[in-house]
Amino acid sequence: MNYETIKHKLAKLGDEGSSTLDVLLAINTIVNRSNSEWEGRDLVIRALDQFNLFDAVEQSLLLNMVRAVGLFPYITPHLNNMALSDRLAYEAHRVEGVEQGMVFHHLQAHVFSLIMQGRNVVLSASTSVGKSLVIDAVLAQRRFKKVVVIVPTIALIDETRRRLVKRFKDFNLITHPSQEAASDTTNVYLLTQERVIQRPDLADVEFFVLDEFYKIDLANGTDANTRAVDLSLAFHKLAKTGAQFYMLGPHIQKISGLDGYEYHFIPSDYSTVAVDIQNFNLGMRSEERVEKLLELVKTLDSPTLIYCQAPTSANRVAEYLIKNAGLTPVPETQEIAAWISKHYHSEWDVAKAISLGIGIHHGGVPRALQQYIVKLFNDGTIKRIICTSTMIEGVNTSAENVIIYDRRLNTSTFDYFTYKNISGRAGRMNKYFIGKVFMLEAPPLEKGLTVEYPIGNQDESSPMGLLMQLEPEYLTDISRGRLQDAYTNPILSPTTLIENRHIPIDRQVEVAETIINGLSLSSELLCWKGIPEPKQLNYLCELVYSLEGGNLMDYGISSSSHLAWHINELRTQKNLPAYLKDAVENRLQEHTPSEAINLRLKFIRNMVCFRLPRDVMAVNTIQADVLAKEGIEPGDFSFFAEQLENIFLDPLLTALDEYGIPTQISTQIKNLILPSEHLNDLLAKLRTLAPRIEHLQLTGFEKNLMRWAVSEM
């Protein structure tokens, strides 16, 4: 029998007249073929899903095959029934220094062995492989005293922190810029690439991990390009010290540009779950696609992710299911739905959906809410999450099913790599042996992915912001020439250009010329410190608007005065429900209330808390450069930029959002935890507060959230 025949027979194994022994013998034949490794492993996993249909002798044969394909974690529940030789092989894959139950499968053991030998490893394997478990095993050996783990999102920082804090209670886990290393323990930095670049204390790192390393490639559009530059610089900053590294990510066939480093590249198709994919090939705007989604939502009872390419699409899917899926309110989620309605808006689909047992997870949803929604999903309280790439890229979930609703981002479609990455979210080792993927549209054509490390592949198109941060010995002759041309700029100094590397040089020059051309007025409007007066804020917003080059239009902000209005609303009112109510009342005709709310929340997260503070500091650097040449004392916008980054709240309270506590709750208890000297002091106060949470003046939901968040700090 071939693979497809055996797979079909396994699916029908419970039917009358099917021969369990014949199927097992056929699987054993494929397992023993040297050229059928993937097929044999896949069939063994499918047989494990039907384990109880086999008799004791057949189960023993199946477990022997589990050992043969290296899936040792699947042996754990049956260890007492295994032969001595099998148990010895199992023990050889047990990880020392971690809790009793951690056992590696074959690929994990191989990667771990290489790292322990001092080798650099680049691993490309599917989501289900458990690549991050290797990190925990390496930390457990306590060989390295200073470790950095680079992850692409703050959501992944939080998830990694929660995992590590349970295993290594004596480690100092550093996630925030305000935290510092401790001299008497192992320091593990969990950082995004931007935070790696900002930290001055990483010169003596011994080992670092780069998760989702494919994001180092520049070929992903403007925003992704900026983050890819930062990720490249973060890798360069750590790798040039000689620190050992472990890079991990899914489905990469080749990596180029790392010729300056010795490393072991492992592209693997190893998987710990089987996946069944059903392609429906429905049109992108067809009624059939929407009807099929509705049918699947009504018939799938086990945990399901519904993937959408963008928040707008996720919002439409949510609205459709709220109206048409016939879902009834879930008693366990009514309090959180009421809380979201009160603290955000009753028309926000996140509130309506969670009431019906559907989570929504995309870039417009505040981080603490995202984390709690994932918790509810993994706990089984809710069975469905509508999500975008914010959840697909690394956040661990226990989902049996993945519905891929659409495959577009603006005008482009996602590629085969993204398709495989999304599909890899279906199934979970020892829980859902066979993941199910439902692709509503036609799948993309199969194509391998090569990842390029841009510092090792410099050419005429390499971003200037990347080259400006490199030491001369890492630059090519072409790059040196390009930099020399850039630094001949008569208006701005090389120091300013380097500090503002995220912003194109021509836009920086435009802002400098605006200041120079109206020097008498601009010097008055720029020479401030602390918080700007209204006229000063308006002028600052004019300059920031020039730097952004029209990007603010994506958030419905069409002028610098409009930008100043938004900043003033957030600074003076500090009333998020009122700010969102205004968004609903003054929305564009084509926007639903929920879309208007999402746009405002996305503006706060992406612009107010990230890009605008960076832009303000860029203007600060430019005006200091220009005014100093004119003998005029420049202003200092750093305090205002910090205030903006923290939405005009105490920075320690906004930092708690990353730990799962929304600012709406932290501000209610601030008198109990503030003042605090630094974040670690604040976290210690929260842990001390844990036994008294029941007596705080909070709602039932707020107490539940606090208990959960504090227990994992």
Describe this structure in words.
The protein has 713 residues and is of the alpha/beta class. It has 32 helices and 17 strands. A 7-stranded parallel beta sheet has the order 3-4-2-5-6-1-8, with helices on both faces. Strands 9-16-13-10-12-11 form a 6-stranded parallel beta sheet, with helices on both faces. It has a two-stranded parallel sheet with strand order 7-17. α13 runs antiparallel to α14 and α21 (505-517) crosses α26. 44% of the residues are buried.
Characteristics of this structure?
single chain; alpha/beta; 7-stranded parallel β-sheet
Task: Briefly summarize what is shown.
With 713 residues, the chain is α/β, with parallel strands linked by helices.
Helix content: 40-55%
Proportion in β-strands: 5-15%
Radius of gyration: 27 Å
For the termini, the CA-CA separation is 53 Å
How many helices? 32
Class based on secondary structure composition and strand pairing: alpha/beta
**Which regions have little confidence, pLDDT < 50, spanning 5+ residues?**
none
How does the overall form come out from the CA principal axes? globular
Question: Would you tell me the overall average pLDDT?
Answer: 92
Strand order of the largest sheet: 3-4-2-5-6-1-8
What kind of sheet is the major sheet? 7 strands, parallel
Counting DSSP E segments of at least 2 residues, the number of strands comes to: 17
